[in-house]
Specification:
Among the domains are: 6-65, no CATH class; 71-205 and 611-683, P-loop containing nucleotide triphosphate hydrolases (Rossmann fold), CATH 3.40.50; 322-475, no CATH class; 687-813. Helix content is 59%, strand content 12%. The protein is an alpha+beta fold and 815 residues long. The strands form four sheets. The protein has a six-stranded antiparallel β-sheet with strand order 2-1-4-5-6-7, covered by helices on one side. It has 31 helices and 17 strands.
Length: 815
């Protein structure tokens, strides 16, 4: 394997790593993202998810690289494919050199090229970029019973290898089965075993006329894409796309939070709930307090809504129930009835009497019988004592009843007072209209005006508390209904607030990732052009050298070649000069020049030393070229053929003719087509020798009358001599550096065979040819026969005469 071209074939990861490693302004997190994006979408996802942490220098040199093998073509065998019906084989010499495969349009020669392209690359430019009709007519119309392609290869350090493509009878184009077989080993699916997976794009060895034209004629962006692919720059574009996609996804949470916040601000602004007013104040801040918003949404904030707090206070008012009122009123009435002022006096007298009798009894118990110390009339004896005790017991019962009645009255009054004291007025609630509020407060005020006399208490309670109860119940219900209405209105807002809080927290988690991705993408975009042009320059330099050969009489010269812009603004820019005046080359080139330029741009990459393809195949590359550019093209091919197997398919005879005339060492093969898509491949003889063979066939054909032979043979002699002379003259002129245009003019100006021989032999059509003719015995008779036949002289033509012609032609061609 030859040493890779370091400027072009150095792995892109190494180039990027060196550039990124030297950038001190880029954060490590962003650097890791750039490298992961270059590896692939899965690696980038892992890096973003924290699965892979590229904390150390990535060993780009140690990365797994395909080890492609160098290969030459030995044959292309095709059956039932495109213009080829029954199996036909094009054999090739597997070594550096030029093979020209000629054939008219429709001969089947391009079918060999397309079959090779499909087998090696898995696709065809014509089918990929043309109308669907091309892809639907890939089977041969005459014989598709066996549809297959076989490409023979010789591979360095390996046995003979075959890449095959097979189709089942009803299979579509893309339903092919591709396989590789080395020697007699078992076939392996696809061509991955050859290490060609990436090389097919990086060092594309097959270029067709359609592809060459499409590269430079479609648009600057098409040429940009093609150059980028051939230079392996798709990795940069793919990395940019991956970073762009990842950045777009990473921005989604923040955008969602932003959109939700915009809507949320509008919603809370439209609400008259005082909590919404708090939300407005919180959300208008540049950086809203997420915790405060969450507390407001969940109701866990210490700052309660004033209106809601007021309504809840009213909803919790202690309003006496009707049954409570009835119980208290009844108790008051009963107690009042049993406790009148006289009853109170009787109780006091009985109490005093009992006290006196009790003292008298104590005296009796102490001194015995005797007169009453108070009246001194009565006798305090045992009978008196028993009687006094009985009276005391009776008075004690009555006294107890009076005392209990008083206690009942006091208890009834306390119960009434508690009902009155528990009554509270309700405050107005800002922004809330409560229709029962005034009636309730007035009822409470009336109930609180308790009369001084206990006798009117029950009636007061009865006349005021029921109004308090009714208005209070109504007020409480109004408050509860208002609370429910407010909660119904607030609940969706609270839900939106809580949802935004969640979105904001999710967005906060990705903000750092977004910043890293933006930095990574910015770095990649900023350095992409430099990376592209750094890898393009060596190719551009070679392209300019090739263009110098191809341009010939073109007045367009190529200067700087660069890839500029990105996305929809991407384009390939070719600076140049037209007759010395600066200009963009693409805009001033003819079609032939554009095709020549395309070849100049893509041949260098196809033939880089690191390419595994030791062959380059061109299909109809000279269609739009003028003769001068064909000469230059042949010189380019000759240079390539020193190290590469060069195969050119062409329907244009000018290429084969120019090859002969320039004495370029090349193998010429002709493809012809018969009915039923039967293709024949045969090596082409030199044109002059073909005329000699035609003369042999004529004189040996017994079915041709003698007079016909005598008339026709001299013409073949003349064609053979002039063809050989032309090849010698063109080769001499080419070696002398003369332009093809001057060469063709000098040849065309000479009309006679003798003079053309003199021009070829001596470089001067008017110089005497006698010496040259007398040097070999067969020369005079051959020229005489040629001229005599042309002038109508009777001549005898036999096999010996044709043998003389053959020796003369061989002598001229070997000069």
């Amino acid at each position: 394997m030859t040493k890779p071209d370091e400027a072009v074939d150095r792995p892109l990861m190494e180039v990027v790593f060196d550039a990124i490693d030297a950038d001190q302004d880029l954060a490590d997190e962003a650097k890791y993202l750039v490298l992961a994006a270059l590896e692939g979408i899965a690696e980038l996802d892992d890096q973003l998810d924290g699965v892979t942490l590229l904390q150390a220098r990535r060993a780009a040199h140690g990365m797994t690289q395909e080890d492609p093998v160098g290969a030459f073509l030995t044959s292309i065998e095709v059956a039932g494919f495109r213009g080829i019906g029954p199996k036909s084989e094009l054999t090739l010499h597997p070594a550096p050199g030029i093979t020209i495969v000629s054939g008219r349009n429709g001969s089947g020669k391009s079918s060999f090229a397309e079959a090779l392209e499909f087998a090696v690359t898995g696709k065809s430019y014509r089918w990929e970029n043309k109308a669907k009709l091309w892809a639907d007519t890939w089977r041969n119309l005459h014989d598709a019973s066996q549809c297959q392609v076989r490409v023979g290869l010789t591979i360095e350090g390996s046995e003979r290898t075959v890449v095959g493509v097979d189709w089942d009878p009803d299979a579509a184009l893309r339903e092919n089965k591709t396989w590789t077989q080395v020697g007699n080993a078992k076939r392996s699916p696809g061509t991955d075993s050859l290490g060609w997976k990436s090389a097919v794009e990086l060092h594309r060895p097959i270029l067709s006329y359609d592809e060459i034209g499409g590269l430079v004629e479609d648009s600057p962006s098409t040429l940009y894409d093609a150059l980028a692919k051939l230079l392996g720059l798709d990795e940069i574009t793919d990395a940019e796309k991956r970073l762009t996609a990842a950045l777009k996804n990473a921005k989604v949470p923040r955008q969602q939070a932003k959109d939700a916040l915009i809507q949320l601000k509008r919603i809370v602004a439209e609400s008259d709930d005082d909590r919404a007013v708090q939300a407005v104040a919180l959300l208008k801040k540049r950086q809203p307090d997420v915790g405060a918003v969450q507390s407001l949404a969940t109701g866990s904030t210490s700052e309660q809504s004033p209106a809601l707090s007021g309504l809840r206070t009213i909803g919790g008012l202690a309003v006496p129930l009707p049954e409570q009122i009835e119980t208290v009123v009844a108790a008051v009435r009963s107690a009042v009835a049993n406790n009148i002022d006289l009853a109170n006096d009787a109780a006091a007298i009985a109490d005093k009497r009992n006290a006196l009798l009790g003292t008298a009894l104590e005296l009796h118990d102490l001194v015995g019988d005797g007169r009453c110390p108070v009246c001194e009339t009565g006798i305090l004896d045992d009978a008196w004592a028993a009687h006094a005790r009985a009276r005391i017991d009776a008075e004690d019962d009555k006294l107890a009843q009076f005392k209990q009645s008083r206690r009942d009255l006091d208890e009834a009054r306390r119960a009434a007072r508690m009902l009155i004291d528990d009554l509270t007025t309700a405050d107005t609630v800002a922004g809330v209209e409560l229709s029962s509020l005034t009636a309730y407060n007035e009822a409470v005020a009336t109930a609180r005006a308790v009369p001084e006399s206990v006798s009117g208490l029950a009636e007061h309670l009865n006349s005021t508390l029921f109004a308090v109860s009714e208005s209070g119940q109504n007020l409480r219900q109004e408050a509860l209904d208002s609370i429910a209405a407010r909660e119904d209105t607030w609940a969706p807002i609270a839900s939106r607030l809580a949802s935004w809080v969640q979105l904001e927290r999710e967005a906060a988690k990705t903000d750092a990732t977004v910043a890293d991705l933006e930095a990574a993408k910015k770095w990649m975009t900023a350095h992409a052009i430099d990376l592209r042009n750094q890898r393009l320059e060596p190719i551009a330099e070679q392209a300019r050298d090739i263009w110098a050969e191809l341009r010939q009489e073109s007045n367009v010269d190529i200067g700087a070649i660069s890839l500029e812009g990105s996305s929809t603004r991407r384009k390939a820019v070719l600076k140049g000069t037209v007759d010395g005046a600066p200009s963009e080359a693409l805009s001033v080139m003819s079609q032939g020049e554009l095709h020549a330029l395309a070849l100049a741009l893509f041949i260098p990459r196809a033939t880089t030393p690191n390419s595994p393809f030791r062959f380059i195949v061109l299909d109809d590359p000279i269609q739009a070229m003028d003769p001068a550019k064909i000469d230059g093209f042949i010189r380019v091919l000759s240079s390539l053929a020193e190290t590469r197997q060069v195969v050119v398919f062409s329907h244009d005879d000018r290429l084969a003719t120019a090859i002969r005339q320039m004495a370029v060492d090349a193998r010429l093969v002709e493809v012809t087509r018969e009915t039923g898509s039967r293709i024949h491949v045969r090596e082409t003889l030199n044109q002059a020798k073909r005329y000699v063979d035609d003369a042999y066939a004529l004189v040996r054909d017994e079915n041709v009358p003698g007079d016909v032979k005598r008339r026709a043979a001299p013409g073949l002699f003349r064609l053979a001599l002039e063809s050989a002379a032309q090849q010698l003259f063109y080769a001499t002129q080419h070696r002398a550096g003369e332009s093809r245009e001057d060469t063709e003019k000098r040849w065309g100006d000479v009309k006679k065979t003798r003079n053309r021989l003199a021009l070829a032999v001596h470089g001067d059509a008017d110089k005497d040819l006698g010496g040259w003719l007398s040097y070999r015995p067969e020369r005079w008779p051959t020229l005489k026969l040629c001229n005599a036949g042309v002038h109508g002289d009777a001549v005898a033509v036999d096999v010996d005469a044709v043998k003389d012609l053959g020796r003369v032609v061989d002598g001229i061609l070997s000069s």
